[in-house]
Amino acid sequence: MTINRQWILRQRPIGDIEPGDLELVESPVPELQDGQILVRNVYLSLDPTNRIWMSDIDQYMPPVGVGDVMRGATIGVVEQSRNAAYAVGDAVTCFDGWQDYVVTGGAQVLPKGLPLPAYMSVMGATGATAYFGLLDVGKAKAGETVVVSAAAGAVGSIVGQIAKLKGCRVVGLAGSDEKCAYVVEKLGFDACINYKTEDLDAAFKTHCPDGIDVDFENAGGPILDAVMNNLAMNARIVVCGLIAQYNETGPVRGPDLTNVLMKRARIEGFIILDFLGRFEEYFAEMGPWLAQGKVVYDTTIVQGLENAVDALGLLFTGGNTGKLLVQISLEG
Ligand SMILES: NC(=O)c1ccc[n+]([C@@H]2O[C@H](COP(=O)([O-])OP(=O)(O)OC[C@H]3O[C@@H](n4cnc5c(N)ncnc54)[C@H](OP(=O)(O)O)[C@@H]3O)[C@@H](O)[C@H]2O)c1
Q1: Average pLDDT of each block of 10 consecutive residues along the chain (332 residues)?
Q2: What is the predicted pLDDT for the residue at 273?
Q3: Which of 146, 190, 199, 268 lies 20 to 30 angstroms, CA to CA, from 286?
């Protein structure tokens, strides 16, 4: 009888994960049925999002149930097979969680050629996160300045290297001088800021003198706060992760973009002056709507230029409905 050890979520952590939140339990590996394989897990991917999954917050997949095996991606080797699609010895990836063995009918067979950990980092979801986040969401272009938090980590280290390959100037943030040296010397970033010891605002002004075009945000909190003060015109903030917040129990320092992340929302500033050349497009569409009564409009008109200052106050007390105007003189 083969024994399987499984990490079970016993209670939802409050703040940092504490002993007792998860429990390692043993049980026999179940008998294989037709169509199933027995996988011996070799690598378990540990991800910041594991902490999110433990919480009962609104998120992008259901939280792990209390009493369930902790969710996680694994790479393992097929030890027994009753499924013709899998041979004993195949390396596969599964999503069945923190345990020694998986009995499953569905696992993805990995290609050969690279060390297995590569399929969990650069040639797996981690690398894809970096690639699509930077290029699809962030639309990073040659010549732009890209800032990457958690730059020495799994996603950040790939983001910065792709950005360099695409011709960007890349500035990382990491939590020690050793990591910063690694980020610059080994990964090839242009600069790296130790966010634990340096003045973030001053460092961004030094390393991003023309502002930040793309912020690949992995951290949130004070880093995001300082990033926001150093944006270039038409900057993009890619909200990939907010690790600074995952263990927080109190209010977050800096803007809380949790829901932007979970709902894949887009925040974008605009000034109408940017659309001056397209007003005719708008009038052409609105004119008929107005004529057909499909759109109505209201005005609140205050009489007398002398009342302009008081009238302005109406905007802040809600004293207007529709467009607030001051009538200075008669029309006729
Ligand atoms: N949106 C998605 O689909 C997606 C997919 C994968 C990952 N993510 C997110 O991407 C981020 C990075 O994930 P990863 O898997 O690559 O992990 P990782 O970067 O390998 O590990 C996390 C790193 O974050 C840094 N960190 C921890 N607390 C921090 C804080 N308060 N402020 C700044 N940095 C802090 C630490 O490095 P230092 O020593 O430098 O502090 C740590 O090594 C996470 O936010 C994660 O949730 C999102």
Answers
A1: 93 94 95 96 93 94 96 95 97 95 95 92 92 95 98 95 97 96 96 98 98 96 95 95 91 88 87 86 92 92 92 91 90 87
A2: 81
A3: 268
3-state secondary structure the chain: CCEEEEEEECCCCCCCCCCCCEEEEEEECCCCCCCCEEEEEEEECCCCHHHHHHCCCCCCCCCCCCCCECCCCEEEEEEEECCCCCCCCCEEEECCCCECEEEECCCEECCCCCCHHHHHCCCCHHHHHHHHHHHHHCCCCCCCEEEECCCCCHHHHHHHHHHHHCCCEEEEEECCHHHHHHHHHCCCCCEEEECCCCCHHHHHHHHCCCCEEEEEECCCHHHHHHHHCCEEEEEEEEECCCHHHCCCCCCCCCCCCHHHHHCCCCCCCCCHHHHHHHHHHHHHHHHHHHHCCCCCCCEEEEECHHHHHHHHHHHHHCCCCCEEEEECCCCC
**Distance from residue 244's CA to the centre of ligand 1 (Å):** 8
Atom of ligand 1 nearest to the CA of 242: 45
The predicted pLDDT at position 129 comes to: 94
- CB-ligand 1 contact for 183 (6 Å cutoff): no
**pLDDT at residue number 254:** 82
Output the pLDDT for position 255.
86
| 227 in contact with ligand 1, CB cutoff 6 A | no
Q: Which of 134, 243, 248, 262 to mutate to test the pocket of ligand 1 (most atoms within 8 A of CB)?
A: 243
What's the confidence (pLDDT) of residue 332? 86
